[in-house]
Amino acid sequence: MIINEVNRVAVGDIVRRAANRFPEKVAFVDQETEVTYRQFDEMCNQFANYLLQNGYKKGDRIVTLAGNSYEHAVAIYGIAKAGLVWVPINPGISMTEKLYILEEVETTTIIGDPAFLYSHKDDFNHYSILVFGDGNPPLGVSFLKVVNEESVEEPEVDVEDRDIAQIMFTSGTTGNPKGVAISHLSVYIASLANIIEIDIKPETKGTILMPMFHCAQHTFLTSFLHIGATSIIVNGFEPESLMKTIQREDITLMFALPIMYKAILFHPKRMNYDIQCLDTCVYAMAPMDRATLEKGVTELGAKFALGTGQTEMYPATMVFKPEEQLRRFGSYWGTSSLINDTAVMDEEGNLLPDGQVGEIVHRGPNVMEGYLHNEEATEQSRLFNWHHTGDLGYFENGQMVFVDRKKDVIKTGGENVASIKVEQTIINHPKVGNTVVVGLPHEHWTEAVTAFVIPKEGESLTSNEVISYCKEHLGGFQVPKDVVMVSELPMTSTGKIQKHVVRSSYHNHYQSETSVD
């Protein structure tokens, strides 16, 4: 077999090239451990060689079940160097979903953290198990032990740009999760584009705070490796601990959720820490409320940017740039990444002019190869030769404005209400910590606009206060028919509120009522 190394595009090559340019530079800081680019490249080669020496063949799927660590990164890029397929599983999903994914991808091997592996070891006893961490694990074998026994030489593997690099599973609102097959080209090109769009530099020190098993953090990790930046690994979010880490490590770029920035900027001990080193603050998953954004820009002097994308359309697909942040407030997604075309389309496949709401559609090299074992869903996602996101939006002066997920628009009393519009209003109330708005079945309204609110810590807040605030800032049909105070909301591991869980849990909320005026 002749191996194509002349003009190939392969995720594993990113690590080697960075090591050639920055051999002694620190690639990862993981608590007390520092790993240079040379060391990281060699460990990735060692793991790739272990896989190849043990009979794994191109295209075989390897599952990881783990949080953030440099070992997890070694596994991810070692799998890529071996020409195999990385399948990350979110540790937070149910055991039923985990077992479904394992069967769906036909894997024989699981790599992960002891906490996630040992709690259900009977379910994993017919898989080969590699365990992160030191010592002799009671289940499987030590990941570092097998890595350290192999050659550090680069493996010779044939990789084509459209070969599958990874299969990531989306959390479906109904039914089983769908596997999204993503090529080497998609990961490679998207992560390069992020360097330009977000202005990542070799001297950047960036957080790996969001889960590495999620596409948004993985694409940033790959971008950092491309440019030779240093990744500071953080496992779990606690505001004061993170501020200490930012100050200690002189972090310049942070990728986090809006609610995380809010928790830091309004923390009672915020001024005890010097976090002025932050130069770039990227957020995603939701818009940022005005008070938090203005406080972040003025106090830190940092550039804030919103990035959007999805597993099926490897992020970022659009960026709401720093120069626009304080000029416009609302659900702005900004402009397309330099590798994407973006348009707004109606149900018949017509592209709509500025100002008209339709489905947001994309084209570009970062579109998925397809859904695993689901040709029908793949075809539906690319009708009219565009990738369909399931998001509604419109262009305003060249900027994309996100309206809502198609499935989350509330149909109430003959009107359509964008849930995100109501959420943005409520989150700006000074006593609100977080909120979600859904439509619930109602005899009179069909769907009643209903808000679930977590008060800000230490604040006393009533439903009537929230409703009065909404009446000041929203149209009458957009004002919630009820506001429910809660202490927590169901969330994914990446901080998205699970609206389908809220809708299901409160499905009968209005059952005993007749009508609400």
From TrEMBL:
Protein name listed in UniProt: AMP-binding protein
Annotated ranges, domain AMP-binding enzyme C-terminal: 421-496
InterPro entries: AMP-bd_C, AMP-bd_C_sf, AMP-binding_CS, AMP-dep_synth/lig_dom, ANL_N_sf, ATP-dep_AMP-bd_enzyme
Limits of the AMP-dependent synthetase/ligase domain: 16-372
Pfam family, one: AMP-binding_C
Matches recorded under PROSITE patterns: AMP_BINDING
